[in-house]
Design brief:
By secondary structure, this protein is α+β, with helices and mostly antiparallel strands. It is built from 18 helices and eleven strands. The chain has a five-stranded mixed beta barrel.
Length: about 500
């Protein structure tokens, strides 16, 4: 099963590397035809080889079919740069920038005759003079229904080798056109559209506004980090802070990452499990261990939704659900099998996940930890053994991420192990819980305490940022693959 899932993943990866989209049906047909003899000869080694090839073709076909559906929802070239009147809903948190705000808009109706508009677009609403026209921006909140006149264009971006692929980023988020709001008087048609997605986004907006009120940016420079930790709004963090995080290798901590979702789920599961064991009536109805697993999954789902259901949070949620099902089944399931099942769920839900560096970093780090797990689990005893086990974990995660970081970002922070050794426990076990508590209980002392602890950590990270960073030319793909093999050898 594990080899078949890896073959399916390889098929998805190969499709994403194609210069143009091939038809899906020949590959799906080939995969199904190959699967029939593999099932008939089940157990024999030829059947295993055939099943691997079949899964490779099915993965390729699955990614091609999903891409074909998404690319079909396109803006016709004839309607680029023309005024179009649309009715829709503000679908996500608006993001302010120097000249206005930017937001995702779910189109419900196109009022302009014969016009064709994708279902989800990205709009900019400018403020002030622009191209000789006066733009007046109105405050926006998620879930509001608006009637707007817009000008759109099809997605496009720079195509620099080894650079950020803006078009792929928009495609992954199902944003099929970008544009701006015209200075034609807009009309708010509804204060709130009661749909689950929009309710969650309105909740995130309320939390962000609460932090802005409690911690004004002028007096609290790290308040944006607390917002990012609470609701996953990374754009709340000032641009110059990202330089510090990149140079110290702590970028993954300054947003809702898989580590934070897992930590929150584990803490909630421990709390529910502890209370459950002390109530005999509850324990007789459902074992405490299963109750804790269910509570942890629900907590992970809530936190992932609060984070805007970003791709890293999705991956972690799927992995936790698969692990919980495996544990709740009462069967002993190999950790590698659990990881592969999570990989399959992620790719079925989002074939474009393989384009994100976080996909490779998260699965690579977890795989490396499972790879050295026997050495870590064998270190029971005193503080020296635990310190050694912690060092093994840090070494494995750092080494496993190195090929990906050099391939995608062409740099590696030499001080990253030291910075993460301090930042991971502080952010995960102090700052993030306080930020979440301040989101639920908007009381200034809680938010101020979280900001104070974060301020002490930032002093340390700014000192770490003065250390050198290893910069390297972008390696070819084959070099990164060979490096991954080398990592596996080093971790033996």
């Amino acid at each position: 099963m594990r080899l078949n899932i890896l073959a399916f993943a390889a098929g998805v990866i190969v499709l994403q590397m194609q210069p143009e989209l091939p038809p899906a049906w020949p590959w799906a047909l080939a995969g199904l035809l190959l699967a029939l003899p593999a099932i008939h000869w089940r157990g024999a080694w030829p059947a295993r080889v055939i099943s691997v090839v079949a899964c490779l073709a099915l993965g390729f076909a699955w990614a091609a079919w999903r891409a074909d559906i998404r690319l079909a929802d396109a803006l016709p070239a004839a309607w680029e740069g023309r005024d179009i009147e649309v009715i829709g809903v503000v679908a996500a948190l608006p993001q302010d920038f120097s000249q206005g705000s930017r937001f995702e808009f779910a189109v419900e109706k196109v009022s302009t005759a014969t016009a064709v508009v994708p279902a989800r677009i990205m709009l900019s609403w400018y403020q002030g003079q622009r191209d000789g026209e006066e733009f007046i921006r109105q405050p926006l909140r998620p879930g509001e229904r608006w009637q707007l006149t817009v000008r759109l264009k099809r997605p496009h971006g720079n195509a620099n080798p080894n650079g950020f692929d803006y078009e792929a980023w928009l495609l992954e988020r199902n944003i099929r056109a970008t544009g701006y709001v015209r200075p034609v008087p807009p009309q708010r048609l509804a204060e709130m559209v009661w749909w689950p997605d929009y309710v969650i986004e309105r909740l995130r907006h309320a939390v962000r506004a609460s932090f802005a009120e409690m911690l004004p940016a002028a007096q609290y420079p790290w308040a944006g980090i607390l917002v990012a930790l609470a609701v996953g709004d990374q754009r709340a963090i000032q641009g110059d802070l990202w330089t510090t995080f990149n140079r110290t290798g702590t970028t993954h901590l300054m947003s809702i990452s898989g580590l934070h979702v897992t930590m929150f789920a584990a803490l909630f599961a421990l709390l529910v499990g502890g209370v459950w064991r002390r109530v005999p009536a509850l324990a007789l109805r459902l074992p405490a261990q299963k109750a804790a697993l269910l509570a942890g999954c629900l907590a992970a789902l809530f936190y992932a939704l609060l984070a805007g259901f970003a791709v890293p949070a999705q991956r972690t949620l799927y992995m936790l659900l698969v692990a919980a099902l495996a544990m709740g089944s009462g069967r002993i399931v190999a950790p590698s099998r659990t990881l592969c099942l999570a990989l399959l769920v992620v790719l079925l839900a989002d074939p474009w996940a393989v384009l994100a560096a976080g996909f490779w970093l998260s699965f690579g780090a977890v795989g490396a930890l499972l790879y050295v797990g026997s050495a870590v689990l064998g270190e029971a005893g005193g503080w020296r053994q635990r310190l050694r086990a912690w060092g093994v974990v840090q070494w494995a995660a750092t080494l496993a991420s190195l090929p990906v970081l050099l391939l995608v970002f062409q740099q590696f922070s030499l001080v990253s192990p030291l910075a993460n050794a301090v930042a991971i426990p502080v952010v995960s076990f102090i700052v993030t819980p306080l930020a979440l508590l301040a989101a639920v209980v908007p009381w200034w002392p809680i938010a101020a305490l979280a900001h104070a602890v974060l301020g002490w950590l930032m002093l340390f990270l700014e000192w770490c940022a003065t250390w050198p960073v290893w910069l390297a030319p972008a390696p070819p793909l084959w070099a990164a693959v060979v490096a991954a093999v080398g990592v596996a050898v080093c971790l033996l």
